[in-house]
Write a structure and sequence with these properties.
There is one protein chain. The protein is of the alpha/beta class. The protein folds into 2 domains: 2-108, no CATH class; 127-306, Vaccinia Virus protein VP39 (Rossmann fold). The protein is 43% helix and 19% strand. The strands form 2 sheets. It has a 7-stranded mixed β-sheet. Strands 1-2 form a two-stranded antiparallel ribbon. Helix 7 links the parallel strand 3 (172-175) and strand 4 (194-199). The longest helix is centred in the N-terminal third of the chain and has 29 residues, at 76-104. It is globular.
């Protein structure tokens, strides 16, 4: 067998070269059949005939090209040689198909997977927050899906009321940018005598009123008004605690702080929630000083005192 294959080595190399040359410009059936024909015409009937026979039996033919059939009566050795021709030619053809597939791909398709359709998500609201202390501890408050609505995180509220002391018994508090009302209801839950919550959005105002009725919170009063206007209407030095947490993308911090500094009592507090840290140099012209500070994620929590 090895001797026969060696004898046909020239035929095999000639045949493979024809497959490669034709494969660059013709389809599989035409190229293989024409290669067999060329091999027969070159004077190698055993290899070409046997290959042509296997080509038709295995489904690679059908192109209409006539090839030599004299191999039907050849010895077993020539049939083995033809099997060798066929298998090696199939490997070469597989390589050629891979090369053609690489040429047909665009550069961006090599590393970029096909984009999968993304199902549209349905908005179901932003969730809920819990009151963490006092009479209504663990009570859930709904959070509506509104631009700029950002309830104070639980960790920050817990730290804030640790700073203030757990009981706000008898305090007067104002939450001028109420949103969900988390800060105002937290203060009321801890014993504040009067909590004024202000909100401009009508849907949020309705939601706040619903929570007041549900909790029977007689110490919470909801007003539909602008936060800064709410602060400016307060009497001087009349409030124990003011919460300042307007939308981060607005320009409400300075006017709100200026109004709050006038309304807070001398021994009172102003809570400021902002995307950046405020320093004493920024606060002192408004009559306020930094008492405590906490950074939690993107939130900077400040507890301020009026300057004596």
């Amino acid at each position: 067998m090895h001797a026969c294959i060696g004898h046909e080595q020239g035929s095999f190399e000639f045949f493979i070269q024809i497959v490669i040359n034709l494969g660059a410009r013709e389809d599989r059936a035409d190229a293989l059949a024409r290669a067999a024909q060329a091999l027969a015409q070159a004077g190698h009937p055993a290899g070409a005939g046997a290959f042509g026979r296997h080509l038709r039996l295995r489904g690679f033919g059908g192109c209409g090209v006539r090839v030599c059939r004299c191999a039907a009566a050849c010895c077993v050795c020539r049939r083995l040689i033809s099997d060798f021709f066929l298998e090696e030619a199939k490997h070469v053809w597989g390589f050629l198909e891979w090369v053609h597939s690489m040429k047909s791909r665009t550069p961006s398709s090599f590393n970029t997977p096909a984009a999968k359709p993304v199902a549209e998500k349905k908005h179901r609201g932003a969730g809920e927050v819990r009151i963490i202390g006092g009479e209504w501890r663990r009570t859930k408050l709904p959070v509506a899906l509104k631009p700029g609505l950002r309830p104070t995180p639980d960790r920050v509220r817990e730290t804030l009321f640790n700073w203030l002391g757990q009981s706000l018994l008898g305090w007067r508090c104002v939450d001028p940018f109420a949103g969900t009302g988390a800060l105002g209801f937290e203060a009321a839950s801890r014993g504040a005598a009067h909590v004024q919550v202000c909100e401009l959005d009508p849907a949020l105002v309705a939601q706040l009123s619903t929570q007041v009725n549900r909790l029977k919170a007689t110490n919470v009063h909801v007003l539909r008004t602008d936060g800064v206007a709410c602060l400016k209407q307060l009497s001087a030095a009349s409030v124990d605690l003011i919460f300042i947490d307007p939308p981060f993308d607005g320009a409400l911090f300075e006017p709100a702080l200026q109004a709050a500094a006038k309304a807070v009592k001398a021994d009172g507090y102003v809570y400021l929630e902002a995307p950046v840290a405020w320093t004493d140099e920024q606060l002192q012209p408004m009559g306020l000083s930094l008492h405590r500070h906490l950074k939690a994620g993107a939130v900077h929590a400040h507890l301020l005192r009026p300057i004596a």
